Queue: 2 jobs
Job 1
Amino acid sequence: MHRNILAIIVAILATTSCFAQLPKIAGGTLKRYERFASKHITPRTVEVWLPENYSATKKYAVLYMHDGQMLFDSTNTWNSQEWKVDETLSGLLAKKQIKNTIVVAVWNNGAYRFSEYFPEKALPNLPDSISLSLVQNELMGEPQADEYLLFLTQELKPFIDSTYSTYPDRANTLIAGSSMGGLISLYAICEYPEVFGGAACLSTHWPGSLRLQNTAIPNGIITYLKQKLPSPKTHKLYFDYGTATLDALYKPYQQLVDEVMKQKGYSNKNWVTKEFAGEGHSEKAWSKRLHLPLLFLLGIK
């Protein structure tokens, strides 16, 4: 119990004090919405990145990204690392390699990050003892992924589409994240296939836990995917993983997921899985390859 309380305090401090100032960006414009209200989850900061020369006379695809406080400015993050989202998108847009795109950076709330990012409907696929341990010790006693997705689809997306000049359709609504953010991105496209047309899942944390090391949790997630993967005719999925640090755990599970993808009719037209030898589990690693999922999901043919 004391460890849980300490973890909550540390997480709250991290998400409030360390990220108070507006991130410095290398290109484009950043709009911040403090304590964005929701009926479903706790309020949190949402930032919207607009490319250089954003214009209401044009239309833009929208990329929703999790762990929003880690995307733009390494001087503002707990580990002094960032995704370099503004640099990468600005470069691809300048070369006209991707569609006009805005990014919606949704901050995690620290204490309930695991609770909001773990695929909630996979829990019934787990043995009761493992599910109970996971819920009590890591999901803070309250799985909230379904509520988090309600926030994204019913509250945040309508606000973004009414405030900015977007293409609101499925083909132009994408979602991306890493680690647990990879899991919730995949869960989002499975639960809301009519909303999201593509998902990028970098270093997906298939074990689903930091405390429990067993095959039951990833197998439960894979069972869910067998039931819920959306149609390859209208969706695109990007996966990747490194081979060092935490990423070293992922390859066997990713290979099982790849088999499910094949069974569901996915091909290289709508699905990519990449391995990055020697790369670990960090924003630095993800920033080096961010251009690849962007080109796959948003590329101009």
Job 2
Amino acid sequence: MSVRHALLAILDQGPCYGYQLRAEYSRRAGAAVNVGQIYTTLERLERDGFVDHRGADERGHVYWGITDAGRALAARWVAEPDEPGGRGELARKIALVATLPGIDAAAAIAAQRDAAVLRLAEVESAPSDSGASSDDGVSSVILRAAESAHARAEIEWLDAAAAAVAKDPVGRTFPLSVERPRRGRPRTGT
């Protein structure tokens, strides 16, 4: 999942400071991200006109807000299906999108499912390699079978994700946390 796009989707909920964005990303996507990457990404997003500074609080936390261009980019990211490949990345994207109020997670899941169905149809309708050498034919059959299995598994997983979102379309979302995240490294066992 693109950290850049995920930060924009989170900022669409309201202004945040760097450590807050890190905490929101972690609790929504189920993955940790280095705080340095957060700040580097924010600087690039600011350079490109997708975010801007929104002032600082009494503790010196610099808040970032999303611009109209950033809001449009985040909406496109949510709506467009991801390319096949990194399933963990897609799972994190869907998990994050499902927690954000005001985002149509069902539509994002449906778009991804439609893309997987189309990919499956293309794989299954591709002509067989009957004219290839026996080695090429076997590898082609194996690769097509793998592509087909991956597409079927993705469709099944997306159906389960859609069912989870449909069970409680509002209760699954939550606003930005008001709890200040701890700075520094998390504690390990004592």
